[in-house]
Specification:
The protein has strands spanning 2-7, 10-13, 18-26, 33-39, 46-52, 56-59, 67-71, 77-82, 91-98, 102-104, 108-113. It is mostly beta strands.
């Protein structure tokens, strides 16, 4: 089992920045990928960014050039630096860890005011 705890959400104005962090505990040696998804009201959960083996990264087109994901080689933490935030970035952000199964954090609210 893997447990994920997120921190760093909040309210920010358009153009502002926030940093999300996620700490993993438990069977972290099984983790191959960590990252972030988000879900806005009335919408499906969508990929934001992933990092695999602490090196290879994937980003949604909507956040490329604005968000940066980083992780540790020991696979116990992942962060998401979010710059130039837009109102459409408003959502609950979920930390994700993948191994033989998928694990999710409890979610942290990010609200961008116009």
């Amino acid at each position: 089992q893997v447990q994920l705890v997120e921190s760093g959400g909040g309210l920010v104005q358009t153009g502002g920045s926030l940093r999300l962090s996620c700490a993993a505990s438990g069977s972290i040696f099984r983790i191959t990928t960590m990252g972030w998804y988000r879900q806005a009201p009335g919408k499906q959960r969508e990929l934001v960014a992933l990092i695999t083996s602490g090196v290879s990264t994937t980003y949604a087109d909507s956040v490329k050039g604005r968000f940066t994901i980083s992780g540790t080689n020991v696979k116990n933490a992942v962060s998401l630096q979010m710059n130039s935030l837009k109102p459409e970035d408003t959502a609950v952000y979920y930390c994700y860890a993948g191994s033989a199964r998928n694990y999710w954090g409890q979610g942290t609210q990010v609200t961008v005011s116009s």
